[in-house]
Design goal:
Blueprint (H helix, E strand, L loop, with lengths): L17 H14 L7 H12 L4 E2 L3 E2 L6 H4 L19
Antiparallel strand pairs: 1-2
Length: about 90
């Protein structure tokens, strides 16, 4: 039996599958409560996240604990990096 990685603060697994991320994104899209970033902005944000030293497990931001694939998709979201948002794409 392999050990499942656990979050230090809770008992839930910290590993999030692509299917789980896709389902969360589908819920956001169906809910129509958020404006979504364009595919271009989304891809640029994810590229920045994937090269950040504060990304854990390929999904989790160590600055805020969010799933970056979800945060990057919501247009109004910002990068939580303390000094300055790394998503400043201007």
């Amino acid at each position: 039996v392999s050990k499942m990685r656990k979050c230090k603060a809770c008992s839930a697994s910290v590993i999030v599958s692509e299917n789980e991320i896709d389902e969360m994104l589908n819920i956001i899209v169906r809910g129509n409560q958020f404006k979504l970033a364009s595919e271009d902005v989304y891809d640029k944000r994810l590229d920045i996240c994937f090269s950040c030293k504060d990304l854990e497990y390929g999904t989790t931001c160590l600055q805020c604990g969010c799933i970056v694939q979800i945060r990057a998709r919501i247009l109004e979201s910002t990068c939580p990096y303390p000094q300055k948002s790394k998503w400043d794409l201007r």
